Amino acid sequence: MCRTGSKLTIGSEVTLYHLPNARTDVQRDDMRRLEEAGICIFCEPTTNGDPHSVLHRTPGWSVRRNTFPYAGTSLHLLLVPVEHVTDMLDLSADVRDDFWDALAWVRQHHGLTYYGLGIRNGDVRYTGGTVEHVHVHVIVGDPDADRPVRLRLNSRPS
Q1: pLDDT at 2
Q2: How far is the C-alpha of 64 from the C-alpha of 136, rounded, in Å?
Q3: What is the Cα 41 distance to its own chain's centre?
């Protein structure tokens, strides 16, 4: 369970997702369903119907498969903190410190020799993100892919 239940409010509307930034119709429909139910996809025990989506836990983080991986990746995981905040710097010091243990597990468990990290902080209406719960993308690009991995880092509010 998330340690805080904060939600972004736009006007009188409470929102957990920014639907215009969804990359596919399936992702948008899934977010709409969760939004209507008032469920944050990253707040435990939510696994979006996939009990195997959580691969590892530390006291402050869960390591999950990305249900909607970016094109051109051979591995796309999400590191999700137990605290529901929109900025890494708003996490407690213990959870921030524990990030490194979660990342070390990913690198060791998957035998990674190269990978990228992506994170968006703040209001997802501007960052290109979809979920109002900070999370870190661990991305391994597929060298045989026909296009590079693209991580959107900006958007215009609608």
Answers
A1: 57
A2: 10
A3: 9
Distance CA(51)–CA(54), nearest Å, equals 7
What pTM did the predictor assign? 0.85
Secondary structure class of 120 (helix, strand, coil):
coil
Q: In what order do the strands lie in the sheet with 136-141?
A: 54-57, 61-65, 73-81, 136-141, 116-119
- Please calculate the CA angle 12-18-20 and round it to the nearest 5 degrees: 120
107-111 own/partner pairs: CB under 8 Å, 24+ apart: 109/55, 109/56, 110/75, 110/140
Cis peptide before 45 (omega within 30 of 0): yes
* Tens digits of residue pLDDT in 43-74: 865 555 565 589 999 999 999 999 889 999 99
User: How far, in Å, CA of 90 to CA of 39, rounded?
Assistant: 21
Kind and range of the H or E element at 35? helix 25-37
> Nearest 10 degrees: CA dihedral of 3, 98, 91, 44?
-30
Query: Quick count: other Cβ atoms within 10 Å of Cβ 87?
Result: 12
Contact 80, 112 (CB under 8 A): no
Strand, helix or coil at 33?
Answer: helix
